[in-house]
From TrEMBL:
One of its GO terms (molecular function) is lipase activity. This is Uncharacterized protein MANES_11G013800. InterPro entries: GDSL, GLIP1-5/GLL25, Lipase_GDSL_AS, SGNH_hydro_sf, SGNH_plant_lipase-like. Residues 1-24 form the signal peptide. Keywords: Signal. Belongs to the 'GDSL' lipolytic enzyme family.
Amino acid sequence: MAWRSLFFFAFVLHVAVIATSCKAISCSRPRTQASLFIFGDSILDAGNNNYINTTVAQRANFWPYGQTHFNFPTGRFCDGRLIGDFVAQYANLPLIPPFLQPGAEYYDGANFASGGAGALDETFQQDQVISLRTQLSNYMKVKDWLTRKLGSDGANSVLSNAVHLFSIGANDYFTFATANSAAPESQSRFFVGMVLGNFTRVIEEIYKIGGRKFAFINLPPVGCHPMARTFESDNSDSCFEKLSLLTRMHNQAMPQLLVQLRKKLQGFKYSLFDMNSEIHKRMENPAKYGLKHGKTACCGGGKYGEVYNCGGMGEEKEFNICENPHEYMFWDAAHLTEISYKQFAEQMWSGHDPLVVVGPYNLEKLFQLDVIESPLTTFVSSFQCQKQNKNSRPYVLLINVNE
């Protein structure tokens, strides 16, 4: 058992080094630089699930996760860095710390994302992941922390000029589709409205607290991920159509939803990245993007890496791992490689193609944008979301989607 103790000590030491370096950078960086707050699921989770009592399927703090960049598992569901890490780099920020990381400071922002999380509290509730509403509560705690450190005006300035990055919803639709594969379209449409309604409510609450700048990643084609293909039929090249329909309805509704929010919320600025289309392009023509494999996972069981057991998680302990993750779009059965996330982050940062970055801003411009209005004029001191009934029914957004 001695090697286990050494492994744990090395992990703690590695995290401590990251935390110390981030702390040093944030203390020396001018406070005028826009911060980054990250919300969502495993696409953006930088290690929050390391600190909660969840299942092994909702963790990534074991080898070979993290092998490409960090040379150690950090809790990221990837072989290396995520989109949020690259965005922080391009914005001249340090790595944004997980909110739950002991000793973390939040001048540069915080990462609230949790693998397995959904817009609905019920999504993977049995795994005790951090739902989007709980992430909102943690954001409010960071606001209180900033107020203690910088004063009320300083905290308001940080939040109003910060970029708030979101990727959420895939887990909601995955759990619904696997449990209700025969649900009629009307029920599916109602469920999409529930997810978008809860998502919208969180955005509006962040706006009330002081947030003005938002960046959104639309849902990936999770119905065509290696793991999801096993649900449709014995044809391993077929997508899970029920799940694909739900994500398609969600993504079609997002642009019009954001336009409505821009009209409703004064000073609301946003960028929307179409990751779904970009993943499809790489699945069909990986060579065009410097990849060799667009549909097979680098790490996992089965012929195509469709078994979600990278690192030996789950009942099936034997798994395969590729020699070069940079040749693959998929890292495991449900997540992408660092090279894929890097390509997407570059598009989000400086992209000008209206079919990829839906405006009016890419992230570079969004970070540079100064909020004109004083955050004190619109700051809400009494947070209504603190008063919400925990058992209240989800808010439903009525949507009109043409397939």
